[in-house]
Amino acid sequence: MDVQDKLAVLADAAKYDASCASSGGARRDSRDGQGIGSTTGAGICHAYTPDGRCVSLLKILLTNWCVYDCLYCINRKSSDVRRARFSIDEVVQLTLSFYRRNVIEGLFLSSGIIRTPDYTMEQVIEVARRLREQEHFKGYIHLKTIPDASPELVERAGRYADRLSINVELPSAASLKALAPEKDAVGIERTMSRIHLRLQAAKEAKRDAEGVRALPGAAARAARPPAFAPAGQSTQLIVGADASDDRAVLQLSSRLYTGQGLRRVYYSAYSPIPHASAALPPQAAPLMREHRLYQADWLMRFYGFNADEIVTDAGFLSLHHDPKLAWALAHPATFPLDVDRAPREALLRVPGLGVGSVDKLLAARQLRRLRRADLLALGPAVKRALPFLVAVDHRPRAVDVMALSRPAPQPQQAVLF
Amino acid sequence: MTLPLRFPADWDGFAAQLPALLAGDADWTRDVGAQAALFGAPAQSHVQAWRPPEGWHDLGRRVAMHADDARYARLLAFARRLQREPGLWANVLDPDRRRLQSLARQVDREIHKMHAFVRFREVVDEHAAGGRRHVAWFEPAHHILRAVAPFFVRRFAQHPWAILTPRGCLHWDGRRLTGAGPARREDAPPEDAGEALWLTYYRSIFNPARLKVAAMKREMPVRYWAQLPEAALIGELVRDAPQREGRMRGV
Questions:
Q1: pTM for the complete prediction?
Q2: pLDDT at A24
Q3: From the list A14, A35, A50, which residue is nearest B211 (CB)?
Q4: Which residue of A has its CA nearest to B230?
Q5: Cα angle at B190 between B186 and B194, to 5 degrees?
Q6: Whether the Cβ atoms of residue B35 and residue B71 lie closer than 8 Å to each other
Q7: 8 A C-beta contact, residue A238 and residue A268
Q8: Which of B196, B203, B250 is facing A275, going by the closest CB pair?
Q9: CB contact (8 A) between residue B213 and residue A416
Q10: Is B154 within 8 Å of chain A by CB?
Q11: Is A29's CB within 8 Å of B213's CB?
């Protein structure tokens, strides 16, 4: 099998992982006389595929051979999918060649489990080590942590990687036991909290080292502590493969953000795989559900909402309305708000107002009373906010809110080919 | 008198002329034709000295890169208003200010997209360090060539590369950056041997069960497609998606 064939198999096998972020890395570049690459801390999407997803990293598996038999996974032991395995050097060369073409920010490497978890993890780390130490690669590296890999290996992985991730896979321990018999929710969270502790230690070491520099008359700079995954850790959840509702999913995310300091939780709508097990649903989870979960996740992280208040009584997010609009419609007594007086937290809950718009309104109302024209100057999205706001020359009509409560027509996918 | 600028996005040149323009010592109105109205009435002699507010240079530098022919006229008109109206700069909702911010944002976005969408192809070049160069063709919508250069220098500091555009070119030999005049599309190299791997990757990482063409186009507008080798695959991928998805489900 040549590299071209292997790439087709091992990229196809990796496409179910939603994460492709390249942000949050340490700032570095290749002007020091060696190697190639740079990271600025902000991610770049170098291309978009027709599924609307961004291509930021070369996202591949080292191999799709696997000794585990997770039913939702295309690479499970009992699947008859085509198998392939890259050599370490092939992955290194592919990464460099793609990087030189300017089509990626770096590498996202994961792998099926071959022989043992530790053996697999060592192979994955060796790719990253060669990229960093032999090729002086300064681009972004995201390594998938193999569940049950030893703490020493996790430590080494963090030295080369910008980001580590370990997938919790399913929203409940019971589902994981049923669908992924070799994986264990407790073990996954144990590895996650180990990484969390290590990230906190690295942060403190960095702060201490910077503190030494700031001492008056300090003679020498403190040695820079070795970096450990400066872009933190993330995880992924598959939704729609088991019966868990959105409340369970969002409560878990919320716990991971606060308890484990995760940078991102990714949601991946269960996508049917060839020769799927009868224990799995025959149909794909609606992409709209995945979309609503991302919106809800955003509201939890930046808008002060909590998991319990954005799901409906049935435990799911509304598919008809985005979660912010659904919340506003369910709380009519909260609105309308006076744009000249309402506090920031309240304005953030108005559908159509983002963080940027709210901050502009707060700055402008220091100078004078706000008018309808000021609201409209913020951009087209603000039209949606008008039924929830009062200004000197603007009073919403009840009928405007009623119009919003009707389900929006389902957007039709534009297919132009 | 014509606009005494060295190149289209010469903000420093414009900023140096601005006090004289505001004081009425210089007159561009004869040469700017249709934009004359935007320059407003000649300034009166008692107008106070020009003291730009904090953030003015940042905004102006970005607006100056925009392809809008009236960009300098807009900046001058707004500077006149700033002189006359105390507190105007603090009013972030002022329509003229919003318009300038919007031009600046379009420039920022184009810089970001150029960082993302430049596609290098390998060229054998015995004079280059390492015996090869990476050369790209790109058609930026605004005057951003100088603004994108530092990104590529930092990223590919050890590798010779060139970016050719209809607005001018950048050449990096591993030590020095030089500029050159406009290039033509035919000057750019054809497909190289390694490109097939990238096309294979693009085809394989696409999930046909999740077709979202509108979302793709929002982030990768069609006007960039001619410069992206992978865009030639989009038609085929979209057309075959239902069939591939059916195979995924085993029907």
A1: 0.89
A2: 78
A3: A50
A4: A47
A5: 160
A6: no
A7: yes
A8: B250
A9: yes
A10: yes
A11: no
